[in-house]
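Propose amino acids for all 438 sites.
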C-alpha cells in the first residue's frame, strides 16, 4: 500500500507544527501518521487514495459516520449562511440545552463550552467554588483533558498500603507533564479505578478538603475498562458522606453509551455534575457542563464562579449537535451501532480465543477494542492495560491492520467507535483482518 503522500506531508509538517501534528495522539502511528483526504459513511480515504474501514470516527464525535444525513447537512449549511457567529445568544443554544436536560436524567441546566478539556476545567472550578474546598479525587489512568488539575500521577505506595503505626499513607501525586507547578498536584488525589478500599482511605485522610470526585463511567482512554458492580455506588456514598460533589466525565460516553440517557442512564446513576463533548457537537468543536440547578447557578453571571468563552454555544456547532441528536432520537441509530458493536465483540472474541487466548476483547454498546493482555483476564484498571503488550499493538499490529484496509485508533489506549454509517460488511471485513493480522 503506497503512502508516499502522507510521508511527504508529515515531512513538511515537522517544519511548521510541533511534532508534525496539532494533537499529540495523532503522531503515534509509526513511522508517520496517515493524512486523511475525505470520509464517506464508515470509511476514510487517505492522501494517497487508499480506502479504509474507519473505526477511529474522529476519536468519538462521529456517531452518524462521515456522510451526514441530508437534514443534518441542511441544518449546518443554513446556520452557516446566516453568519459565522455573533458573540450574542441564539435560539439554537436554548433548544440544544433543552434537548440535553430533557433526556439526561441528572442534568437540569447546561453551560456550553468549546472542548471536553474546557468542560472539565470549568467543572473542577465550579466544584471548588461551590464547596469552598480545593482537593479533587481522580482515577489513575483516567483522562479529563489537557488541564493542570488532572494531569497528575501517583507516586509512592498504593493508598491502601500502610505506613508504620498502621496509619494510612497520604496519597502523593506529581504532575504528569512539565509545565505544571508541583503545587497543583498537591490538590489532586489519584486512586486506582475499581478499588473501593483506596477510595475509602483517601476520603478518610482528606474527606473534609475534597471538593469533588472526577470519574469516567468507563475508562475509555485506557483500553476501555468497565466499572465493577458497586464501585460507582461507593464513590456516590463517599461523596455524599463528606459533602463532596460527584462529577461524571461523559465526554466519550455521553450520547454513545446508554443512548440518549448516556452512561448514567445505562447504569442508573445520578451524578451532581456531568461533562460532555464529542457527539453533542456533531463533529464540530464542543464541550458542556451539565448538572443540578443549585450548583450550575454558581456560574457567572448568576453566581460568582467565573466562566466565559467567545465561541461557546457557537451557532454552527449547536446546529450540528442538536440535529445529530434529534436524528439519533428519531431513527434506529443506537440499535444499529450497538448491534454492530456486539457483532464485532462476538466475532473478535472467537478469533482471540482461537489465536491469542491471552488477549482480551473489551467494550460495550458501540465501543470495542482488543487489548493485548498477557493472561486473558479483562483489565480492571488502567494499570492492567498499561501492563499489556502496548508496543506490540502500536508498532506491529496496528500497521498490519492498516495494510489490510482497517483504520484503528492510534494506540492501544484509545477507544474504537462504531458509527451509523458502518455496515455488516465492514464488520465482517474487520474480523477477517484481525484473524489474518493476529
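Proposal:
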Amino acid at each position: 500500500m503506497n503512502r508516499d503522500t502522507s510521508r511527504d506531508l508529515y515531512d513538511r509538517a515537522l517544519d511548521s507544527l510541533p511534532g508534525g501534528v496539532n494533537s499529540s495522539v495523532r503522531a503515534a502511528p509509526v513511522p508517520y501518521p496517515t493524512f486523511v483526504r475525505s470520509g464517506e459513511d464508515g470509511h476514510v480515504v487517505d492522501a494517497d487514495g487508499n480506502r479504509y474501514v474507519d473505526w477511529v470516527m474522529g476519536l468519538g464525535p462521529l456517531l452518524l459516520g462521515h456522510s451526514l444525513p441530508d437534514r443534518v447537512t441542511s441544518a449546518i449549511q443554513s446556520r452557516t449562511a446566516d453568519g459565522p457567529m455573533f458573540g450574542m445568544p441564539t435560539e439554537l443554544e436554548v433548544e440544544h440545552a433543552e434537548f440535553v436536560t430533557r433526556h439526561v436524567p441528572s442534568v437540569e441546566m447546561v453551560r456550553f463550552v468549546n472542548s471536553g478539556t474546557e468542560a472539565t476545567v470549568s467543572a473542577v472550578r465550579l466544584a471548588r467554588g461551590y464547596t469552598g474546598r480545593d482537593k479533587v479525587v481522580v482515577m489513575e489512568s483516567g483522562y479529563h483533558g489537557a488541564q493542570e488539575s488532572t494531569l497528575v500521577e501517583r507516586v509512592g505506595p498504593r493508598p491502601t498500603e500502610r505506613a508504620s503505626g498502621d496509619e494510612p499513607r497520604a496519597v502523593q501525586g506529581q504532575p504528569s507533564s512539565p509545565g505544571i507547578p508541583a503545587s497543583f498536584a498537591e490538590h489532586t488525589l489519584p486512586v486506582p479505578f475499581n478499588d473501593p478500599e483506596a477510595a475509602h482511605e483517601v476520603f478518610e485522610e482528606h474527606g473534609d478538603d475534597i471538593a469533588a470526585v472526577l470519574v469516567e463511567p468507563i475508562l475509555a482512554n485506557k483500553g476501555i475498562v468497565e466499572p465493577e458492580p458497586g464501585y460507582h455506588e461507593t464513590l456516590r456514598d463517599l461523596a455524599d458522606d463528606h459533602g463532596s460533589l460527584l462529577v461524571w466525565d461523559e465526554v466519550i460516553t455521553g450520547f454513545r453509551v446508554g443512548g440518549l440517557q448516556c452512561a448514567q442512564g445505562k447504569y442508573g446513576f445520578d451524578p451532581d455534575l456531568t461533562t460532555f463533548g464529542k457527539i453533542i457537537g456533531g463533529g464540530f468543536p464542543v464541550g458542556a457542563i451539565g448538572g443540578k440547578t443549585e450548583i450550575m447557578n454558581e456560574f457567572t453571571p448568576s453566581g460568582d464562579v467565573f466562566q466565559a468563552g467567545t465561541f461557546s454555544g457557537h451557532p454552527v456547532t449547536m446546529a450540528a449537535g442538536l440535529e445529530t441528536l434529534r436524528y439519533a432520537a428519531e431513527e434506529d441509530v443506537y440499535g444499529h451501532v450497538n448491534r454492530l458493536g456486539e457483532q464485532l465483540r462476538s466475532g473478535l472474541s472467537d478469533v482471540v480465543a482461537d489465536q491469542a487466548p491471552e488477549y482480551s476483547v473489551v467494550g460495550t454498546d458501540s465501543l470495542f477494542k482488543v487489548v493485548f493482555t498477557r493472561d486473558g483476564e479483562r483489565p480492571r484498571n488502567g494499570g492492567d492495560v498499561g501492563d499489556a503488550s502496548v508496543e506490540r499493538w502500536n508498532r506491529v499490529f496496528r500497521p498490519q491492520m492498516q495494510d489490510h484496509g482497517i483504520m484503528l485508533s492510534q494506540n492501544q489506549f484509545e477507544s474504537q467507535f462504531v458509527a451509523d454509517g458502518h455496515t455488516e460488511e465492514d464488520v465482517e471485513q474487520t474480523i477477517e483482518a484481525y484473524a489474518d493480522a493476529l
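The first helix runs from residue 4 to 16. Residues 159-170 have pLDDT under 50 and may be disordered.
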